[in-house]
Amino acid sequence: ARWRNENHALSLANLENEVAGYEKVHADFPITDLRWVIAHVPFATPDLLNRLKAMGAAVQTTGWRYLQGTTANNGSPFRMILENGIRAGLHSDSAHISPLNPWIHLYYATTGVNAAGEPINADQKISRQDALRLYTRENGWFLRMEDKLGSIEAGKLADLAVLSDDYFTVPDDQMRRIRSVMTVVDGKIVHDAGMLQ
User: Fold this and answer.
1) For burial by CB atoms within 10 Å, which of 62, 130, 165, 196 has the most?
2) What are the mean pLDDT values of the chain's consecutive 10-residue runs (197 residues total)?
3) ∠158-161-164 over CA atoms, to 5°?
């Protein structure tokens, strides 16, 4: 049917099984242009990422282990994924098992520190620039809307937020407190905290 497909992998065994399943489908019905995705990927290996990349598949990372992570169960290997070059994004998909606030996910991806203040994923942390790119521009591809959102360019939707703090310079521990003081959707102000003159 040429449908888009997304699966969630919560363990290395899940990821291995899903990659093998994708390969079986791909052998008979190529998926290269269908944008198949595996989300969460709290564990990965270079081999599995290469096998996904060879089929044109992608991964969606998340900072959900910020709440309950440990050094043994620390979440997405952000750095490994970026260095691999596979198409990737950063997201949150639930308020029940992970924080919905994007700044918490960005904080976790860039510091590797969990809610208890413990560094549990520090060897996989990425730069603030890379984390923001994964959360914005790269995510347009996953929605098949890269021509409409993800970056500020002529011809794209005029969706943007004016932030309370400078994401690139605010100290790490204050990143989670960043808020929008003005939000613009499709060129119209939909939120205004009255802080701008």
Assistant:
1) 62
2) 91 96 97 95 96 97 88 92 97 70 93 95 96 93 90 85 96 95 90 87
3) 160
